[in-house]
From TrEMBL:
Residues of the Mur ligase central domain: 126-303
Stated name of the protein: UDP-N-acetylmuramoylalanine--D-glutamate ligase
Native organism: Mucilaginibacter robiniae
Localization: Cytoplasm
Source domain of life: Bacteria
Amino acid sequence: MSETNTISSITSFSLSEKAGVRLVVLGAGESGVGAAYLAQQQGYDVFVSDFGPIADHYKVQLQGWKIRFEENQHTEAEIFQAAEVIKSPGIPEKAPIVKALREKGISVISEIEFAGRYTHAKIVGITGSNGKTTTTSLTYHILKNAGLNVGLAGNIGKSFAYQVATEHFDYYVLELSSFMLDDMYQFKMHIAILLNITPDHLDRYNYQMENYVTSKFRITQNQTADDYFIYCADDAETLKYMTEHTFEAQLLPFSIQKELPLGAYLNGEEININTPKNHLQMTINKLALQGKHNIYNSMASGITAKILELRNDTVRESMGDFKNIAHRLEEVAVISGIKFINDSKATNVNSTWYALESMPGKVVLILGGVDKGNDYNELRDLVSKKVKAIVCLGKDNRRIHEAFSDEIDTIVDTRSVKDAVQAAYHLAKKGETVLLSPACASFDLFKNYEERGDQFKKAVMEL
């Protein structure tokens, strides 16, 4: 895949030339603060601007590094002096300051793009609408267990820029959202993984699915014949795009529906992985991550491991002992024979579908929050088969009632995690599961999905 992009003028500056060159960072979260530190280390005149309040611990860091910053405003006189701007992924294109920068022709890039200029590490980049964090964490786990000098960054952990400034890794495994990919131009993945594409964040893409798909495929830009593109051969949106475009990288698909000569496929209960140089087989009942969606995730990680020629025993062992990340199908406790699972990271319908699909028995499902224009139709079949009751957790639950009242007799409204957990506990029976998998963003009642998940875990332990 090839794209024409403007090459930033700042990339050719030597360290002495950077002195006095203004670099502005918009947004002072993990990504922005890390970028500011790396920029200062590289000799730029750094200014950080956040339109909202900056968290105290980030302010302390910026003050300690003597980096100038502002909060609750954007001072255009400061910002428009920039030779280049690093934009945090949460800031949309329609933000007035971003529009103004575009009009002035000032280069706007992502933290990942900026940090990539200062590392020679090989990059494994992972994107997709669902499964990114799990696959990124599993891939990192395998590589680390194999003894590689590897870092974990992107949409997870410490910022990539901060790690580039403070560490010397040979490899990085990066979780990449579409928002990050949108502002990446010259950055190149040695191994690019695209797990799947389902409608999400369409408000950021003018409600055009093709814009979102194009954004996801930016993960393949700049790849050469020495690089690899790993993708799901069962994903309709992925295949549709690929029939209309060419790719320089070596293609390694994965599938649970058909046999493939290269990549990975499922043969009965066994995963078969074939790369040009290596082969691996593993039975799915030995995987730490169960469920159809996790077979896909494990295939993508396994292909990566074999590209890097890791030993089969190490790969099998790592896939068997991996512990999933917090808030993603995280088993919290079993109380009175009822299993409680925290899947607060499921902020869209497709994520909840995957969670329900992996549940073995009857489920009391906790749903709700900020509805991003959800189409609940794709959940209907699974809900009617597996869900005995729905507990709503949100300020406005009308659309959940409308979607499922014909399928489910019991739908309960709650406004706090404690009430939701109590209600679910009384509705569930021994051998059943209480699943928090909201299919919605958390901003109506919580700061983020982590706070929602943490409150859920606390409420369960207080039963």
